[in-house]
Amino acid sequence: MFIFTTLRCGELFVTCAAVVLPSYSVSVHFLLGVFKKKMFFLLTTKVGPTILSLILWILLIWATPGMAQDSSSQDQGLTSPEPARIYRNPEERREAGLGKQITEWLRFGGVVELEKEWKNNKIRGKDHTEDPDTELAIELGFEVEYDDWLEAEVLFAIEDNGRRHYQELDEGLIGVNLGEWGLKVGRLYVPFGAYYSHFIEGPLLEFGQTRGNAVLMDYTFFNSIELAAYVFDSKVDRRENHNEVDWGVNVEYVSEDESIRIGAGYISDLSESEEELLLDFNNNFLRRVPAWNAYALIGMNWFEFTAEILRATHAFQEFPKETDQPFAYNLELAYFPIESIQVSVRGEHSEELEDEPAWQYGISGTWAVWENVTVSVDYLYGRYKERFAFDDFDNAQISHHQTALQLTWGF
User: pTM of whole model > 0.85?
Assistant: First the structure.
């Protein structure tokens, strides 16, 4: 069905049309099935770590001559490299879905991803391989901008993995910008964490990503420092009170060429995250558990370095001592030998994060086949703390090997 939202600004009437696909639509399920079965058959081929490493080396060797040819034109010092991947974090993914200018005031676009993963779990006494169905994810977005001071944005997310299909309103907001001040109201991701990643698989610290019905206000100093504060409806409350409001703050510095980005944030309740940490407790808490986050991105010629850390400030009283105060950090280095190739390495660590490895390392490669079309491949090795994670039969997990392939199209 079609939802029409009309915004009146003086004498201007702006109409945004967004297509919401009903969950019961037979045609949608049919198209998704054909799309996944008939196209991109490579994603259903089992690629082990050895083949994966070979692919990455071929990409790197093939790209090296181009790097040598272009070296004379590269300036020294900090620059803002153009990653081969269409996006580096969830926010850029949502913005990548707004790529087509329909009218002077309306933009439309989307991101389509087809992804296949394999995971081999080394469990004490045996190995277990997970081979889930190929997953299709689509993000569609509409954005309205009027006279540099008014904006509206609607983003829809659709996912299908053969066993589960759903669609939802990912974001829907109205914003006003007056000079250095900005205000946003609606359903949105609050600015707590950047979650930078050059990999298909997001970092372990994504358990802090938070979305809700929020009011956000920001102010920009010296065209480079932004201070933001927000409040949002709480989904997790005390047992006796279901009308709570949570809040947070964030400060971020961005250099003029965007090659350096440094930020830090605080949120009043980590259990409000998309991870739904207290779902097993009916979203009731004994006390709020705040969290803090800090991140940095530095671009240098052919390289880009990202670092991020997230920690709960107190312990969850609902959880056992081993998992009551989650903490994680992620370090990544990306190398861009030529414009169409990206090779990245990752090292990350977590503590008291349920069912997740204590250490995880990996390598990833991305090739921009055409404009806005990329192919990516990942390999990650995770090592678990002794007797921390268990399977359904209470066998302790020791490590895992994870491989992923992804085709991405942005339009």
Answer: no
